[in-house]
Hints:
- The complex is a heterodimer.
- Chain A is mostly helical.
- Chain A has 19 helices and 4 strands.
- In chain A, the strands form 2 sheets. Chain A has a two-stranded antiparallel sheet with strand order 1-2. A two-stranded antiparallel ribbon of chain A has the order 3-4.
- Chain B is rod-shaped and about 40 Å long.
- Classes of the chains: A mainly alpha, B mainly alpha.
Amino acid sequence: MNMSSWMELGLYFVVLLALVKPLGWYMARVYSAQPCGVDRLVGPVERVIYRLAGVKAEAEMSWSTYALAMLVFNGLGAIVVYLLQRGQDWLPLNPQHLPAVAPDLAFNTAISFATNTNWQAYSGESTLSYFTQMLGLNVQNFVSAASGMAVLIALIRGVTRRMTDTIGNFWVDLTRSTLYILMPLSLIVAMLLVSQGVVQTFSPAVEVTLLEPATDAEGKPVTTQTIPLGPAASQIAIKQLGTNGGGFFGVNSAHPLENTTPFSNFLQSLSILLIAAALCYTFGDMVGDTKQGWALLASMLLVFVPMLGICVWAEQSGNPRLAELGVDQSSSAFQSGGNMEGKEVRFGVPASALWATATTAASNGSVNAMHDSFTPLGGLVPLVMMQLGEVIFGGVGSGLYGLVIFAILSVFIAGLMVGRTPEYLGKKIESYEMKMASLVVLIPPMIVLGGTAIAVSLNVGRAGVSNPGPHGFSQILYALSSAGNNNGSAFGGLSVNTPFYNCLLGAAMLISRYWLMVPVLAIAGSLARKKYTPPSAGTLPTHTPLFIVLVAGMVLLVGALTFVPALALGPVIEHLQLTAAH
Amino acid sequence: MDAMQLLAAVLAVGLFAYLLFAMLCPERFS
């Protein structure tokens, strides 16, 4: 790896960490309804929305009412996206005259976007009209992200409030997340992307004459190429900031009109982790001790940085089979070196590995390279990052509430070790919280491993595999890991637009999103009812290096115990096959 | 970089600067 690659990775972390405090502080003010700078612009819009929707902003909700509001809102959103797809052939902004989407694919896509997964079993440019992309998918990009943020804020209120039954108002949290945080940031990122040449237009696809005519598979001459266009930049900005990940074009951010330059790539990579990282500071600020937020961020980085290192190393090392043939895979001024199969030349290995690690850490799921073409160990990294439960940064809101659950588990286990009642931020952790936390930790692995077992057991599941053997197993495991943790990234190579995969993965996304959100809100409600317990000599400090390592270790341990056997059947065997002596 | 791209860049930087100052001095902007 050359110096510029090191500088690129270093600059990424410097800019990311520099933005954590100001953005985190800003978001804390937004959720605390304190003056936050954009009130004059956004406040009137917010009040009009409340008036039109009949929302009483000052009305508080119990955890069950909050959960019901969230479920009803997300359910209606999924229905709207489904209907838009089914009726897009007679709706406006369909210059390519694309037909209605098939029922199973429409179901899968509707669930995918309502759950913030953004798994894409379709190719945007050849399946969905501009109207469906903008009014269906892009609206869900905002509100599904805002739903995750709202649940996190409700959990924080549960921690900070004492002896009350209420945890806030879902409609207010949803609206403020969208208007004050996601929309202004998206506007900035979208315009920066347009400045880099990312396409943003209502014009239909254009047909151009090839400079060098080619021939198709049947030997017929091909002289023209159709270049799809559309309002992409506005969708890409929120796709990254909201950790959605659903690309405008089929190949996502590897597409030259979706991710044009190294700067647009840097900006999009940064946007993937930005809000999730800054929410750690928001957490600390709102619980009255910013060290608590920094500690959770440190736990995330403690897992993220080594995993990034493994991915960069594996990809930069290249393919040993090609090395045997004398192929030069070294990095130099003239080439990126390493394993460049499936990667964009304009990005190179480090930026592709960084993206792959960040997008799977953050429940984003967008790609700028083909993960299926990564080396076995390089491909193992994104797989593991998803299997850790999307708590290393994770989705906006959902990642941090997941990590807080792991923090609660950590204090519980540490409490058992020293024989004291476990406490987290002044609240006693008791049987009810542990039962709910167990649901949060156990449901995703059950979906991933159970779903993988079903898929590999059935002919319809195995039929989609393009590369039978360990790699084919990895393709199926990756798809279930992605859907079962609401990530949405695709390994590639697996044909998933079939009724079987559309239904299986749709169900996986649905269960893993809401069967986690509801227990988290139940914990929030339970904590809010408790009285404050001041720290004593037996209280485990939750901002120290010991606790940071404990939380990171807990995440790794649960992930490793659950998924190592499955990983051994896929990427580990493949790596051994690749490196075995002949 | 064509005129539209330049305009987008200027608008993005302008909005970013506004938000930054608004965040630094929220009382003055609210």
